[in-house]
């Protein structure tokens, strides 16, 4: 279980959110909604262990995040609003390096299979610079298929995806939830998930 307890988000002198608490259990998705600037990305970065909360605490499996950050980061996959791809490297190279940095054992064959599933078959050796924005988003999301993390934290993952890409991602999230995974995501678009989902609205 992922638990947020009285989190406070601050940017400069502005308080984005105050005493925010929630729980996400195995098999559940939490959709974080709100207008631009309401603190959605700040919250997700806190949950990913990248930004400190001004107050409050985050627990994973009943323990404080600060006590188990290394272990937690092996259990968690964060896909930020930025694509997290090196433009001069190929899609294959990007995913192999990403897996290595996460301590995940993979092979070019497995990466090729993941790229095929996200609709990038035949583009394994193509520089990321030569991809469209939608293709770049697909390449970044291929990490969901390669890194077997129980918790996914996804910041606007539907950005630049076409209808087929959005449906693919919904299906992948549903499979993850059915397998007992947890998902926290932000999106301005509607998601029709088969699994259990809850939502919170920032700035309300």
Model description:
With 204 residues, this protein is of the alpha/beta class. The protein has one domain (2-201): Rossmann fold, CATH 3.40.50.300. It is 32% helix and 27% strand. It has seven helices and nine strands, in the order E-E-E-H-E-E-H-E-H-H-H-H-E-H-E-E. It has a five-stranded parallel sheet, with helices on both faces. Strands 2-1-4-5 form a four-stranded antiparallel sheet, covered by helices on one side. The longest helix is centred in the C-terminal third of the chain and has 16 residues, at 163-178.
Structural class: alpha/beta
Query: Into how many domains do the coordinates divide?
Result: 1
How many angstroms does the end-to-end distance come to? 25 Å
What is the CATH superfamily?
P-loop containing nucleotide triphosphate hydrolases
GO molecular function: ATP binding; ATP hydrolysis activity; transmembrane transporter activity
Keywords: ATP-binding, Cell membrane, Cytochrome c-type biogenesis, Membrane, Nucleotide-binding, Translocase, Transport
Domain ABC transporter: 2-204
Pfam family, one: ABC_tran
């Amino acid at each position: 279980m992922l638990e947020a307890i009285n989190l406070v988000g601050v940017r400069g002198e502005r308080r984005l959110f105050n005493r925010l608490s929630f729980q996400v259990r195995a098999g559940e998705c939490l959709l974080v909604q709100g207008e631009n600037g309401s603190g959605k990305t700040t919250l997700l970065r806190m949950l990913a262990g990248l930004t400190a909360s001004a107050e409050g605490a985050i627990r994973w499996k009943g323990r404080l995040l600060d006590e188990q950050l290394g272990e937690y980061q092996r259990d968690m996959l964060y896909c930020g609003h930025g694509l997290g791809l090196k433009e001069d490297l190929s899609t294959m190279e990007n995913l192999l390096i990403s897996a290595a940095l996460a301590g995940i054992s993979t092979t070019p064959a497995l990466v090729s299979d993941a790229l095929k599933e996200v609709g990038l078959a035949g583009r394994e050796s193509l520089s990321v610079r030569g991809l469209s924005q939608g293709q770049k988003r697909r390449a970044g999301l291929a990490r969901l298929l390669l890194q077997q993390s129980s918790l996914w934290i996804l910041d606007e993952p539907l950005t630049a995806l076409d209808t087929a890409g959005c449906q693919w991602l919904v299906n992948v999230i549903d499979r993850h939830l059915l397998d007992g995974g947890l998902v926290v995501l932000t999106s301005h678009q509607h998601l029709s998930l088969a699994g259990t989902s809850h939502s919170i609205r920032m700035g309300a």
